[in-house]
Amino acid sequence: ARSAAARPVRRLFCACYLSLVEVCCSDHSLLYQGKLHFTVKMFEEASEVFENMLKSSFPLTIIVFLPAVLILVSPLPAEAAHEFTVYRMQQYDLQGQPYGTRSAVLNTEARTVQADVLSRRCVIMRLIDFSYDKYQSALRQSAGAVVILLPKNVSTLPQDIVQHFIEIEPELIATETVVPVYFAVEDEELLSIYEQTQVASVSQGSSSAAEVLLHTATANGFQMVSSGSQSKAVSDWTITSLEGRLSGLGGEDLPTIVIVAHYDSFGAAPWLSYGADSNGSGVTVLLELARLFSKLYTYKRTHAGYNLLFFVSGGGKFNYQGTKRWLEDSLDHTDSSLLQDNVAFVLCLDTLGNTDNLHLHVSKPPKEGTLQHTFLKELETVTAKQFPEVKFSMVHKKINLAEDILAWEHERFAIRRLPAFSVSHLESHRSSLRNSIMDVRGQVDIRKLSRNTQIIAEALARVLFNLTEKGTPGHHQLFTESMIQQEEQLSSLMDWLTSQPRAAQLVEKDSSIISTLEYYMGRYLKDVKQHHVRADKRDPEFVFYDQPKQMMNAYRVKPAVFDLLLAVCIAAYLGVMYLTIQNFGVFYSSVRKLALKPKHH
C-alpha cells in the first residue's frame, strides 16, 4: 500500500526533472522525440496526481504537498546589494621589518563596532567615528577584517577629525595586522549598508534574549566579499628617479649646487596617497626653480658660474632609496658625475605648501665662510627684508644611524660627506602630515607656496651672483617680472601632481607621472635622464606587495541563525505530523467526541 501510494509522487518528481532538463538544455536536437512524448505524458500523470491528492483526505495533502513546497521553494537567492572599490592598507617590508596589513582576502559578515560579538566579522567604521581605541578593540576581539569609510571630499571634514586621524595614521601602518584592512569612499548605497548594519549590531545589545533572537532571525545582514586573491610580494619592482642640469659659465671645474625633491607620496593606503604638501609642494618648487634659472642661464649676462644639478628622486618615503642608489652610482661607479667634483651644497625641498614658518634643517651647522653659510644668511636676509611675516629659523638635528628610517633627505648626502640641508615649513620630521592620506590638494595654500618659492629663488640667486658683497640691498627683488604668472604656474603643477596617487608601489618606470616629469624637466634642463633602483633579490631593503586595490561586493543575506530556526520549525512540523498520523485514530476519536458532545442548556 505504501509503495502504491509513493508511486504517484515518484512519477511527479520524474516529470518535473525531465521538464527541467528540457528547459535548461540549449541544444534541443539532443532530445529524442520519444523523450519529449514521455515528458508530456508525465505531465499529464502529474496533473492527475495533484488532482487526486486534492480530492483525497486533507492530512495526505498537507503532509506531502506543504513540506515539499517549504523544502523545494527555498528563500530567494542572495543578491549583490552593492559593488564598490576598496583600497587596501599599506603592506611592505623595509629593512626586513614588515609593516601594515598582511592579508587581502575577505569573506565574512558585516558588523559595526557597537556589536557585542566581532569575532570573525567584518567591522565597518566611518572616519567621523573612528578612533584608534575602537580599531584596536576590534582587532583584540579577533575581527575578520576592518573597512573604514571615508567621505568623498576629505576637505569638508572638521579640522579636528582630520588632525586626529593624521596623528594616529602612523600607528596604523607601523602595527603589523594579520587581518585585511580596507578603505572605501562613501556613497549613498554604502551609507545605507552601514546604517542597516549598525541597527542590527545595536539590537544585539537588547536586554531581552527573545528580542535579540527574533530580530536576528528576521533582520537582513550583509556578507562582505573581496574579489581579489591573497597578496604576494612583487619581484623586480623599479623605483625611478630623474636628473637634469644647467651648466655654469666659466670653465669645467665649477662648483655645483644640487637641488633635490622626492616625488612619491605615502599614506595608510597607497591608492589614496596624493601627497599634496609632502611632497608635491617640494617637486613644484623644484620645477619652478628650474624654469626660473633656465631663463637666467639663457643669457650670458645672467649666466652664473655655478652648475645647477636638479634631481627628482623616487622612493623618498622608503628611506630615500632613489637618492641612496643615485649617490652610490654617482660616487662609486661613475667618473663623470658632477657629484664627484666641487659640490658647494645640496638643497633638499620638502613640504613647503603652507604656514608662515620656514626652517632650514641641518645635520651640522654650516661654518662661516662656506657657501652653505652664505645661503643661510641670504635666507635670513630675504625673509627679514622682503617677507617679514615669515618666521625663519635653523633647526639642528644630528643623524641617528640607529633608526631604520632617516629623518630628512639631506641626511643621505650628509652620510656621504656632502654639505646638505632641507628647507621645510615643518619644524620637526615627526610631523604626521608627511605620511597621511589626508594630505590632499586642500592642504596647500598656493599663495604661501608661491611666497616660499620666491624666498628660495631670491636667496639662491643672491648666492649665485654674490649680490650681498656687491652691495645689492636685501629688499631688492630679482624675479619680480618672472613671478607675475607664478601662482598660476604653481597651481597647474599642483593640480596635476595631486590628480593621481604617487605611492612608490604604483609609479612604474613607464608611468605617466615619470614621462610627464621627464618632459617638463626637458623643457628647461639639459641631459635629462632616468635612474632606476631595484631591490636586491638576496637581501632586499624594501619589498612591495600587490593587491592594493580591489572590488568588494556586499551581499544581502539572512543570518545563519535564520537557517537554523527554519530547520527547527520544519523538523517540529514534521514531528507533529508524524505523531498525528501514527495516532490518527485516537486523534480522530477525540475530535469526534468533542464535536458530538451534547450541549447543556
What does this structure look like?
The protein has 601 residues and is α/β, with parallel strands linked by helices. The chain contains 16 helices and 19 strands. The protein has helices spanning 2-24, 33-55, 58-72, 132-140, 159-174, 188-203, 209-218, 276-296, 321-332, 371-385, 410-415, 446-464, 486-497, 512-524, 560-582, 584-596, and strands at 79-88, 91-94, 97-100, 107-112, 122-126, 145-150, 181-185, 221-226, 233-234, 238-246, 256-262, 307-313, 343-349, 357-362, 391-396, 420-424, 526-534, 542-545, 549-557. It has an eight-stranded mixed β-sheet with strand order 15-14-16-13-11-12-10-17. A seven-stranded mixed beta barrel has the order 1-7-6-5-4-8-19. Helix 8 links the parallel strand 11 (256-262) and strand 12 (307-313). Helix 3 (58-72) runs antiparallel to helix 15 (560-582), helix 8 crosses helix 12 and helix 8 (276-296) packs across helix 13 (486-497).
